Amino acid sequence: QLQLQESGPGLVKPSETLSLTCTVSGGSISSSSYYWGWIRQPPGKGLEWIGSIYYSGSTYYNPSLKSRVTISVDTSKNQFSLKLSSVTAADTAVYYCARDIEWANWFDPWGQGTLVTVSS
Amino acid sequence: NFMLTQPHSVSESPGKTVTISCTRSSGSIASNYVQWYQQRPGSAPTTVIYEDNQRPSGVPDRFSGSIDSSSNSASLTISGLKTEDEADYYCQSYDSSNRGVFGGGTKLTVL
Fold first, then answer.
1. Are the CB atoms for A97 and A110 separated by under 8 Å?
2. Nearest-5° angle of CA A104, CA B28, CA B64?
3. Are A12 and A18 in contact (CB under 8 A)?
4. What's the CA gap between A72 and A58, in Å, rounded?
5. Which residue in A63, A53, A32, A57 sits closest to A98, CA to CA?
6. pLDDT band at B56, cuts 50/70/90?
7. Which residues of chain B are within 8 Å of residue A49 when distances are taken between CB atoms?
8. In the 8-state DSSP scheme, what is residue A17?
9. What is the pLDDT at residue B96?
10. Share of chain A above pLDDT 90, in %
């Protein structure tokens, strides 16, 4: 059964770069037809797609975040990562990673999520 | 870019049927698949409907999805409501430039 697990610092200072990693188990990140995505949810608010990556390195980013986002993949470790630069308090959120099923742009399954707080 | 608009909240009694709408602001709702996710407090979202009207294994057939081109909207219908269905529900679709557009979410109260 495919499982995803987010990891990374829970506290980031304003203006710094948020970095998270998602480890995929129970399946290969190099599977065709699947992208791997990041989605976030500010406390008490809705879901926002951040971006997705294919195992080859091809990426799609949310146009509203594109200038600050970098998503990369490490197939040898079965991991993909998120970097979000110049963070502010508005970037405080639970960050989820999920498999992004290419033909339907369907996110399933999701990791449990990790809360990242931006504060000095 | 387009938006997906959902009602902020709905409520209904156990055993009844409720429908949650998701209206696409521009572009055809039929052009791209719509997914529906259930999110209980403190948990990650899980899929209840994918590809407009398909149920993943393990999701009861009380959950159904549809699209209506005349109103440019998708709908999630839950019949035979149970208290365990109380959760937030999000619709999601996409277009060529944005792989993940989510609706604002609907809080379902089963009272």
1. yes
2. 55
3. yes
4. 9
5. A53
6. very high
7. 98-102
8. -
9. 86
10. 94
Buried b (16+ CB within 10 A) or exposed e, B25-41: eeeebeebbbbbbbbee
User: For testing the chain B interface, which of A6, A58, A101, A107 should be mutated: the one with the most B CBs within 10 Å?
Assistant: A107
Beta bridge partners of B4: B24
Which of A96, A100, A108 has the CB atom closest to B99's CB atom? A100
- Please identify which residue in the block is written with the tokens 């999110």: B39
pLDDT tens profile B71-89: 999 999 999 999 999 999 9
Spell out the residues 6+ positions from residue A10 whose beta carbon is closer than 8 angstroms to its own: A114, A115, A116, A117
pLDDT digits (tens, 9 = 90+) for A36-95: 999 999 999 999 999 999 999 999 999 999 999 999 999 999 999 999 999 999 999 999
- The closest of B76, B101, B72, B96 to B88, measured between CA atoms, is B76
CA-wise closest residue to A106 among B5, B59, B99? B99
Contact B94 A105 (CB under 8 A): yes
Q: Does B35 touch chain A (CB under 8 A)?
A: yes
Flag whether pLDDT at A102 surpasses 90: no
